[in-house]
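CO-FOLDING WORKSHEET

Operator: S.A.
Ligand of interest: flavin-adenine dinucleotide
Run index: 453
Mode: holo prediction, single chain
Checklist:
[x] sequence pasted
[x] SMILES validated
[ ] output reviewed
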Amino acid sequence: MGATRLVIIGGGPAGNTAATVAASLGAEVTIVERDVIGGAAHLWDCIPSKALIATGGELAELTRAPTMGLKAQGTLDIEALRRRVQDIEAHLHDQLCTLLGSQGVRLVMGTARFKDPHTIVADTEHGLEELDADYVLIATGSRPRVPAFAPVDGERVLTTRQAYPPPEIPDHAIVIGSGVTGVEFTHMFASLGSQVTLLVSRQQVLPIKDAEVAAVLEEAFLARGVALLKGARATAITRAADAVTVTCEDGRVVNGSHAVLAVGSLPNSEGLGLEEAGVDVDEDGYVQVNHNCLANVAHIYAAGDVSGRLPLSSVAAMQGRKIAEHLMGLHNRPHRHLDYDKAASAIFTEPEIADVGLAEAEAFASGRKIRVTKVPFSANAKALIKGDPRGFVKIISDPARGVVLGGSIVGGNAAELIGILAVAVANGLTVTDIIDALLVHPTLSESLAEAAS
Ligand SMILES: Cc1cc2nc3c(=O)[nH]c(=O)nc-3n(C[C@H](O)[C@H](O)[C@H](O)COP(=O)(O)OP(=O)(O)OC[C@H]3O[C@@H](n4cnc5c(N)ncnc54)[C@H](O)[C@@H]3O)c2cc1C
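OUTPUT RECEIVED:
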């Protein structure tokens, strides 16, 4: 019998991780990718947004320079910034292609669709190629949602994918949507020097996050001069030569130089021939999957944004890993199921926000007894040395056994620090395990041990 043949549609985090793991376990793997190996994650989403945010962060550091005993000034060089983002993307792309090549993964550049449940047709520049598959992974990602009222033109009315590398730094960006992407773009433009108005459709930014966490971010935005328009639901955008006007449901009108839409995403599931393969999607177009990421057809999996689970690159990659293990026969190990409730996530604003596991509000809503401990960074030596004592660490644990159930961190390096709580949550560690770890002094992580006490 020959090697197991796996065909993957889409080379983003879900597809390329599944490919490397399956290949290392002995599968014969082909990825069909229509744009770029690395996916939207590399090209438009995680990497460029965080690269721009990093530059904005350096500028923000300079504004704090006088408090650190320094005289320093920064001027943005937009061309150098654009080159930097492209260089990072190119480097990561090369690394990934080298890794896939070294594992013997075949890359086919083209657009794929099902001909039948076991045959994928790739439309490439050399013509059509048919690929036979024992297993197929649909890892086609998602794209920004564009509401009918938004005349997106890539110049002044932008989706998040058109906002970088930015053609110019907006004088006044109106960001529509205050979820994770909306607040990251607000932070990014504000730190690069734009005036920013954020349209918040409800009464709190990050409506599904802990209210205390959102309050710290709102305060930081207001301190930086960001205008927060609460209860503002955009219903129309009009464009003049060098300006845009956004009108809200309640009649409020905002004038700016650019409008940026951050109002969610749609799955890339059309045109894939899913009907020919007999694969079901839900009413929004997401492929329906079970706990093993299997669709309703026994040999077809879906992972990443198209599977409608947590839309994070890290989750997509972990789904890809689990799928590879499952199809290669490692599915008898019960601990290998992916537990989405234990995924850590972060928001790269300033201060950063990160959380993992059970949220306080969620526990109260379900009536579950919890112990909540909270420590501000204003009591942390390293935060004071760094000149940024904003934010806090909050740990949620089981009052009887001390098992860490979740936590939130707001403050410098929160996205890195949450890793400690993520390891605790994923492995059922207790607050005592965190206290007992001999952490370095002075560090921000000491606040975790303190919050665990
Ligand atoms: C602005 C923004 C910032 C983000 N930042 C972060 C972050 O910091 N951290 C994080 O964890 N997540 C982040 N995300 C989410 C993250 O980008 C996605 O969850 C991740 O890209 C999903 O990976 P994927 O493999 O499902 O899809 P993608 O990365 O979208 O890859 C799918 C690939 O499939 C290809 N494809 C589609 N259809 C076909 C076809 N028919 N034939 C061949 N190829 C096809 C596409 O070209 C694409 O390359 C961000 C999202 C946005 C919008």
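REVIEW:
The mean pLDDT is 94.
Residues 62 and 291 are 47 Å apart (CA to CA).
[x] output reviewed
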